[in-house]
Design a protein that fits this description.
The termini are far apart. This protein is about 60% helix and about 0% strand. The protein has about 140 residues and is mainly alpha-helical. The radius of gyration is 46 Å and the shape is elongated.
């Protein structure tokens, strides 16, 4: 039986490539363009952040420089209020009274409030001090 053989000189080459023209630029050009755009954006962002920091610093120092002026204004207002209170007190009572070095007894309202709170806690069964495992029935007041 005869075997099939290739023709003399061989077969023609098989065309597997397509001759389609390449559209656009090389990928390296696109990569370079994106890198440049990102570098420019980072540069602008950095300049803006520095500008904002400078404005914040300027604002802070502006406020620091105004503190003595505002403090003096507050002090003048307090002195004006003090003398107005003294004048009203003189007009109403005929004399000015001392608050700290007087013979008049003044109740300490803060101590009364704390004492009232402690009494209310004691009535409700809440104990402020630690009991270290002792039940409230064993505590004698």
């Amino acid at each position: 039986m005869a075997q099939d053989l290739p023709p003399t000189g061989g077969y023609e080459p098989v065309q597997y490539k397509r001759n389609i023209p390449v559209r656009g630029f090389r990928p390296s050009y696109y990569l370079a363009a994106v890198g440049l755009i990102m570098t420019w954006g980072l540069y602008k962002y950095t300049k803006g952040a520095r500008e904002l920091n400078e404005l914040a610093r300027e604002k802070m120092w502006g406020r620091i420089y105004l503190i003595p002026l505002l403090q003096a204004e507050t002090d003048r207002d307090q002195v004006r209020r003090y003398w107005a209170d003294q004048g009203r007190e003189q007009e109403l009572l005929g004399k000015t009274t001392k608050v700290y070095h007087s013979d008049r007894y003044a109740r300490l309202l803060m101590l009364l409030a704390v004492s009232a709170r402690a009494d209310a806690d004691r009535v409700r069964g809440r104990f402020v001090r630690p009991t270290y495992g002792v039940t409230p029935s064993h505590i004698s007041e």
